[in-house]
């Protein structure tokens, strides 16, 4: 099995970079190569221009935060944070000063004397972050550190991680399979599948302009419609022109559900569709529609207090994607 296949990637100093992809795509293997826990069969790993490919982990200015926080059992969190500094042989006074600074950075001064089981999952993670940040690494690697937290706490820790990265200026390389985490925190995202890096860009680039069907499908909800491209235009199977494109032959049209608007069916240039059903979700309503060629489409309409976002099932409606919403992907 080839865990990584021709991955070439440059991460900027002080950047929050996320490796995003499904389980088994190679993102953790890439992280382990950067950390020095795995050695690639070919290629090089450069840190600030220096080749570290053969350096053991303790010789690299790289620290890792794992899914398991592995805190020491005593009722004092200071030894956890001091551990890396002591392994580096730093003077005692410097260790104490840095530990105090790290506790303040992660806002845990009042909880430093608690045992691990007396801390919440988010608080334990803050201790693990402080321990990894204390030696001032050039790069901090984070291997799905939020996976064990509940949804509310995950969102809180997303903001906390971004704050810590901004305040310290350290390069963060974050691994996750959660698209929301990647979009919320990252300066740039690299989407991986089957050991390959498919696309690298800002969260907005990845979401609005996916390079492949896999990227479009993995990042958020997407409607995929079969179409044919030719003479500079893209037509659905029913004949409606939906976009301009230099491609020729069979293509796939991708449209995000929230980028579709309902308009009267008689308007010119709209996609005619029949409403099959609607589900009210509070912040929005999810509409299930069927185009004339039989293709199914999902649309999300924002909720407006006191009004119904959707007409009755069976209604004939028009669909109009917002400008720039239609993406044409080669098959």
Automatic annotation (TrEMBL):
InterPro entries xrefs: AAA+_ATPase (IPR003593), ABC_SmlMolc_Importer (IPR050093), ABC_transporter-like_ATP-bd (IPR003439), ABC_transporter-like_CS (IPR017871), Mo/tungstate-bd_C_term_dom (IPR008995), P-loop_NTPase (IPR027417), Transp-assoc_OB_typ2 (IPR013611)
Please list the residue ranges annotated as the ABC transporter domain. Answer: 1-219
**A GO cellular component entry from the record:** ATP-binding cassette (ABC) transporter complex
Look up the domain of life of the source: Bacteria
**Keyword line:** ATP-binding, Nucleotide-binding, Transport
Q: GO MF annotations for this entry?
A: ATP binding; ATP hydrolysis activity; transmembrane transporter activity
Q: Name a single GO biological process.
A: putrescine transport
Keyword Nuclease set for record = no
Keyword ATP-binding attributed: yes
Q: Which residues form a coiled coil?
A: none
Question: Sorted alphabetically, which Pfam families does this protein's record hold?
Answer: ABC_tran, TOBE_2
Protein name per Swiss-Prot or TrEMBL:
ABC-type spermidine/putrescine transport system, ATPase component
Give the source species: Rubellimicrobium thermophilum DSM 16684
